[in-house]
Specification:
Elements: E1 4-8, H1 13-25, E2 30-35, H2 38-42, E3 48-51, H3 58-71, E4 76-78, H4 82-90, H5 104-123, H6 134-142, H7 146-160
Helix pairs in contact: 6-7
Length: 171
């Protein structure tokens, strides 16, 4: 019997990318998808699609997912977004071995760490510097003198736009 997976947020970009990647690795998988928006769910790449209750009530949403997982004999539930991961982690006891996530407390600590690391990276970004002349940019990147870079840029422009022909192709 083929392995059966249930992917949350079916129809969104992250879940469709995940489903395509899973199929590329193992075409025999049976992939089920669930989402609380019927219009988003229509765009899902899953084999079967399930309309779920609103994700704004995580307990009801998780209960519906657990029912589907039980009825369809799902082997693994895969959350596709951070919000789905948080909700499933809080209601992990409903899924037993079908869900492979850390406890909610450990997950929130890991999210806090990754957020603080991302904030730290933002502070250390160098300032942007504007360059007004393309010759100056070319010269700084290639190590040539500014005059050499200017001559090369003019030659390239002349080749791209022969004499008597404008950039739009008219004469």
């Amino acid at each position: 019997m083929a392995t059966r997976l249930l992917v949350t947020s079916a129809g969104t970009g992250p879940s469709n990318n995940l489903i395509r990647s899973l199929r590329a690795g193992e075409p025999a998988l049976t992939i089920l998808g669930g989402h609380d928006d019927p219009f988003v769910l229509q765009g899902s790449a899953a084999d079967r699609r399930y309309l779920l209750p609103s994700a704004s009530t995580p307990a009801g949403w998780a209960r519906a997912l657990a029912r589907i997982a039980s009825r369809e004999a799902v082997d693994l539930v895969i959350p596709a977004t951070d919000a789905d991961t948080a909700a499933l982690s809080r209601h992990r006891t409903r899924f037993g071995r079908r869900l492979f996530l850390p406890r909610a407390a450990k997950r929130s600590l890991s999210v806090q760490r990754s957020t603080s690391v991302a904030r730290g990276r933002k502070r250390r970004r160098p300032k942007r510097v504007r360059c007004r002349e393309s010759a100056a940019v070319s010269a700084s990147v290639t190590g040539m003198t500014r005059s050499t870079a200017s001559r090369l840029a003019m030659r390239a422009s002349a080749r791209a736009h022969p004499a008597g022909v404008d950039a739009d192709g008219s004469r």
